[in-house]
Design brief:
Strand order of the largest sheet: 1-2
Number of strands: 2
Number of helices: 5
Largest sheet: 2 strands, parallel
Shape: elongated
Low-confidence stretches: none
Distance between the termini: 67 Å
Strand content: 5-15%
Helix content: 40-55%
């Protein structure tokens, strides 16, 4: 029997942005005794309360992941010389081969 990661996790709150503000998700979280920390959408008829102090922690987590992505981009950037990466230089190398030299 396969179990999902969400069923194995024991958390007390789920922090999400306004895109996760749906009644079905919030009902599911409440059934599992998980506090939804999701700000209500502006067009929601019945406004819900949100713990904005805990919601501000989400910003810290997002900044952390953005820094990881930024440093990964720097770490995996390869320094190519102009001679190798220039399309004009590769064209000049190809055009320098004469067809007359072939047998």
């Amino acid at each position: 029997m396969r179990t999902t990661v969400a069923r194995k996790c024991r958390s007390s709150a789920l922090i999400g942005d306004k895109a996760y503000d749906s009644d079905s998700l919030i009902d599911t979280l409440n059934q599992r005794s998980i506090t939804p920390v999701i700000p209500p959408k502006a067009n929601r008829k019945a406004k819900r309360d949100c713990d904005f102090v805990l919601y501000c922690e989400r910003n810290l987590v997002e900044r952390f992941f953005n820094k990881i992505k930024h440093y990964r981009a720097i770490a995996t950037r390869y320094d190519n010389s102009l001679e190798i990466s220039s399309p004009l230089s590769s064209w000049s190398q190809l055009s320098s081969c004469s067809t007359e030299d072939r047998p």
